[in-house]
Design brief:
Strand order of the largest sheet: 6-2-1-7-17-16
Shape: globular
Number of domains: 2
CATH superfamily of the largest domain: FAD/NAD(P)-binding domain
Number of strands: 17
Strand content: 15-25%
Distance between the termini: 15 Å
Length: about 450
């Protein structure tokens, strides 16, 4: 059967993963990326798969963590994103974090070197042309207004949105290591993958007050009622929920000991994670913020060890758009109102780099099967892939649908009871066995 090109709108992680899967199966793909012809408020380069928020792919523990399990399933499915992430990782304890520029460069090089993939620069400012028989829309949370409007008009959906926030990045040489120290929480990983800045009670209380009273970004009238994603709240929003919220969130002091005064427990601790391979840049963990730039500099330089911090990037807030997927998408990520259109990535209502890439991988494989005149069943819900796609395409309550990270709460319970400590490892073993069986039984879609 003749294989016509699949058009992919968006050159982010999901779009690149979808294109890679198509090309590996001998199906040509055309990536339409609007940058640099038209930029966004969050991107800094025209590179493919640019990371605009954290540089972390989160936990790499495939036995006890659902996102680590998704990492492993993606590796077994020959994921380009995971291969480039593994090749460009930086120290991050038990997490997988990458040098963001090297990672983007690696993905871009692989895509541009693949003869079956074409990259066309320019905006798709409405619904894709009718003669594009197979399309994957992977425009992410920053879908252009023109395309978003066309999709809303087609689906009849009012659209949902949330604010996502970006954490600041600091030059390593500007951090005062006479006050800060290297240590991973509970000494995980190499034991010293993070820089830690301790605060006593008075310093913490002053910091909370600064967050509450500091000058913040003002939203437009039409943005006022847009909800935040609970997994990526600005620190000011967390502070508004109570003075102790941050101490039991990104600033929790547990599992860390100040080597200069080991007998005194810090009231709160700010952690910084390596952001590039050269270890010249560190981002402030969990410090997504809507403080204005001048306020960020003033407030964050009060943190012990960051008094002379030089910022490579300050934090920011942007509006993210996503579909009400349980209503508008079918089990193969096709738009019910126009099945030639598939969606992938964060626009589907998954949250996180890995989850977005995973939906790109599945969208690509569904399109492969379609090109070959076959059908591909979704992965079993017992797998990380299957649990996630089952949730967004029907398992979630459409009336309260919000972006979701992969987590074991999305998985079906085990068939037999096991001790609580063994539950997650048992679910992971079941997932990998079922995922391998799914891959083996559907190999034609990925050859």
């Amino acid at each position: 059967m003749s294989k016509s090109a699949v058009h992919i709108v968006g050159g982010g992680l999901a779009g690149c993963e979808a294109a890679w899967q198509l090309a590996r199966a001998g199906v040509p793909a055309i990536i339409h990326e609007m940058r640099p012809v038209r930029g966004t408020d969050a991107h800094l380069t025209d590179g493919l798969a640019e990371l605009v928020c954290s540089n972390s792919f989160r936990s790499d523990d495939s036995e006890n963590n659902a996102v680590g399990l998704l990492h492993e399933e993606m590796r077994r499915a020959s994921s380009l994103i995971m291969r480039c992430a593994d090749a460009n990782k930086v120290p991050a304890g038990g997490a997988l974090a990458v040098d963001r520029d090297a990672f983007s460069d690696a993905v871009t090089a692989e895509i541009e070197a693949e003869p079956l993939i074409t990259v066309e620069r320019g905006e798709i400012d409405g619904l894709p042309p009718a003669d594009w028989s197979s399309v994957i829309i992977a425009t992410g949370p920053l879908t252009s207004d023109a395309l978003a409007t066309a999709i809303r008009d087609l689906t009849g959906d009012d659209g949902l949105a949330f604010f996502d926030a970006i954490a600041p990045i600091i030059h390593r040489e500007s951090i005062d290591m006479d006050k800060a120290w290297f240590q991973s929480r509970y000494d995980k990983g190499d034991g010293n993958d993070y820089i830690n800045c301790p605060l006593d009670q008075a310093q913490y209380e002053e910091f909370i007050n600064d967050l509450l009273t500091g000058d913040k970004t003002e939203f437009k009238d039409w943005e006022q009622d847009t909800p935040y994603f609970e997994g990526c709240l600005p620190i000011e929003v967390m502070a508004e929920r109570g003075p102790e919220t941050l101490r039991w969130g990104p600033m929790k002091p547990v599992g860390l000991t100040n080597p200069r005064d080991p007998q005194v427990k810090s009231h709160a601790i700010v952690q910084l994670r390596q952001d590039n391979k050269l270890a010249t840049l560190y981002n402030i963990v969990g410090f997504q913020t809507k403080l204005k730039y001048a306020e960020q500099t003033r407030v964050f330089r009060k943190i012990p060890g960051l008094e002379k911090a030089e910022f490579a990037r300050l934090g920011g807030v942007h509006r993210n758009t996503f579909l009400n997927s349980p209503v508008v998408l079918d089990s193969e990520l096709r738009l019910r109102a126009d099945p030639r259109l598939r969606f992938a990535g964060q626009v589907t209502g998954v949250e996180g780099y890995v989850e977005s890439s995973a939906m790109g991988l599945l969208a690509g494989r569904f399109a492969i099967a379609e090109q070959l005149g076959n059908t591909l069943p979704p992965p079993p819900p017992t797998t990380a892939f299957g649990a996630l796609i089952s949730h967004i395409t029907g398992g979630a309550n459409a009336k309260s649908f919000q972006p979701m990270n992969v987590n074991f709460g999305l998985f079906p319970p085990l068939e037999t009871r096991v001790h609580k400590k063994e539950r997650k490892p048992a679910m992971s073993r079941r997932a990998l066995a079922d995922f391998d069986a799914w891959l083996g039984g559907n190999a034609v879609a990925a050859e």
